[in-house]
Design a protein that fits this description.
By secondary structure, the chain is mainly alpha-helical. It has helices spanning 26-40, 44-56, 87-123, 126-132; strands at residues 71-73, 83-85. The chain has a two-stranded parallel ribbon. The relative contact order is 0.05.
């Protein structure tokens, strides 16, 4: 008979497909399962060894040519090449660019209007207009 098992550790499960097979076998469902769990779980020494290996593993800082650890930053006026921009920094830079472009366009339009007025005022004297009437 095919006994139901858990998918990861293969622990014994109670077969609930019919009421007649629903009984609790202490050895099967407790002792055997605890043995499987005990075999699958790392010991304290193994966990400490893994921690030590991870600490000792030298992961370099990331660069344009080397994979590695990456620092994140929200700065938008930095020329640093070892810090990656966050979405917030990219959005702030985009908003600054839009604002600056709009401000520059307004300034240039105002300057062009002022220059045009100065030019026409110099070329066309108002007294000439009234004198012709």
């Amino acid at each position: 008979m095919n006994e139901p098992k858990t998918p990861n550790l293969g622990l014994n499960k109670i077969d609930r497909s019919s009421p007649s097979t629903t009984y609790f076998d202490l050895d099967k469902y407790l002792d055997q399962n605890w043995e499987k769990i005990d075999e699958s779980v790392a010991t304290k020494d193994e966990v400490e060894m893994l921690r030590r290996v991870i600490r000792e593993n030298d992961i370099p800082d990331a660069s344009l040519m080397v994979k590695g650890k990456t620092r994140l930053g929200n700065e938008i006026n930095s020329s640093e090449q070892t810090v990656a921009a966050t979405l917030n920094a990219v959005n702030l830079a985009r908003q600054n660019a839009i604002s600056t472009a709009a401000s520059d366009a307004t300034t240039k339009a105002d300057t062009a209007q002022s220059n045009a007025k100065t030019y026409t005022d110099a070329k066309f004297d108002e007294s000439d207009l009234w004198g012709a009437l």
